[in-house]
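One chain is below:
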Amino acid sequence: MNNQEKQTARMIQATRTTQDRNSFRKMQKKKDRNIYTPIAIAFIIVIWFIAAHIINQPFIFPSIESVLGAVVDALRDLYVLRNIGITLRRVLTGVFYACLIGLPIGMFMGYSPRLLRTFAPFINSLRQVPIMAWVPLSIVWFGLGDGPTIFMIAFSGVFTIILNTIAGVQDISKDYYNAVRSMGANTFDVLKDVVVPGAMPGVITGVRLAIGMGWMSVI
């Protein structure tokens, strides 16, 4: 197995890992499992309440009631709300650019094994670079302000969108391709009527994960 084949295999493995995470999320959404989340939250609150009052050092371990009070006060502060709005705008803008770049790449790579083999080495190499390593370059490229932050958010989410989109396309049954081709559909029709609609579950999952990663990348 040469280096290009190894990179392609690594990309395919990454999409399968994404599918495993999707299966786990679907399992958590079952109705008979929803009761465990409130129980876990209540258990954490009780432990937090007891531990905070036993330690009795608010500076080191604040109580849950003081934290909730601070949250309520912060939500009443217009300065805090304004900055939350600025952060939300940056996150949504970064995710928008990530979708603009990641969706077409993921669609074509999932549809074409040749493109998957071609681009897999580059994408695998870039997504291994720690996100913080791009901070100096982002400042040089975009200067100070929103530019570097939006770039970091977009960069952190684009690979998640690509991998989930590839997984969504590869999950489409071959019967759909055979059906539209038997009716005389060309490549554009296949992409428009089969690939794009069929990949929507993977696309939605990728966008959701990208939004979460965008919040973690805000600096």
